[in-house]
Design a protein that fits this description.
- There is one protein chain.
- By secondary structure, the chain is of the alpha/beta class.
- It contains ten helices and ten strands.
- The protein has a six-stranded mixed β-sheet, with helices on both faces.
- A hairpin with a 2-residue loop joins β9 (about 205-210) and β10 (about 210-215).
- The protein starts with a strand and ends with a helix.
Length: about 230
């Protein structure tokens, strides 16, 4: 579904990504793990064409999307939930969801999208008229994911969905991610909580200072002594 080849990104003189390569197959949960500054968010931004690439190619469903504008990439079904949630704080919950559906034209499909989101996130239904900026951190993360689901993504890019959440809410968010995948959405997950990410992912890639240093089945990497020491507190 997604194939990244020899991807490099520079921010001025800073070489943020060094010819990385990875792939995501339909139906998988793939996780990118790494410390702050390792290049995880830059990778997602390059895929979504939010930052310029220095070199390399990105294929989505067999087509090169390297020069496709960010909003057109959304229309193709590749949707990102950004780090920090980035909800529209001054709009209501319902208005945020409406923004997520801006690429949709079929009123019936949009209505069905609301129902799917409210079925998965009952608290959003209860708060649908509430101003989004007054929601709790966990509810805002649910709204950010719900807004993305309104676009009916084929591939969902999740950037640090557990950031800043209490442990009980982290468990809930990861359960929701698993449910979304089981319902048919492929997921590329960027996450600092390596323990949780490896627990739900099919495969994983380890990023260190802009390079992929390890890759493999998530359950195998979770047992690797080097990974345990660096990321799992082992």
């Amino acid at each position: 579904m997604l194939k990244v080849e020899n991807l490099s990104v520079h921010y001025g003189t800073i070489h943020a990504l060094h010819s990385i390569a990875f792939n995501v197959s339909k139906g998988e949960i793939i996780t990118l793990i790494g410390a702050n500054g390792s290049g995880k968010t830059t990778t997602l931004h390059a895929i979504s064409n939010i930052v310029d690439k220095s070199s390399g190619s990105i294929l989505f469903e067999g087509e090169d999307i390297g020069r496709v504008s960010a909003h057109e990439i959304v229309k193709r079904g590749l949707i990102q939930v950004p780090e920090g949630r980035r909800i529209f704080a001054n709009l209501t919950v319902m208005e945020n969801l409406e923004m997520g559906a801006y690429t949709r034209k079929d009123a019936g499909e949009i209505a069905a999208g609301y129902e799917r989101v409210f079925l998965r996130f009952p608290r959003l239904k209860e708060r649908r008229k509430q101003v989004a900026g007054t929601l709790s951190g966990g509810e805002q993360q649910m709204l950010a994911i719900g807004r993305a689901l309104m676009s009916s993504p084929q591939l969902l890019l999740l950037d640090e969905p557990s950031m800043g959440l209490a442990p009980v809410l982290v468990d809930e968010i990861f359960s929701i991610i698993k449910e979304i995948n089981e319902a048919g959405t492929t997921i590329l997950l960027v996450e600092q909580n390596a323990y949780k990410a490896l627990g739900i992912a099919d495969r994983a890639y380890i990023l260190e200072t802009g390079s992929i240093t390890m890759q493999g089945p998530a359950k195998d990497l979770a047992k690797d002594e080097g990974v345990k020491k660096a990321y799992l507190g082992g």
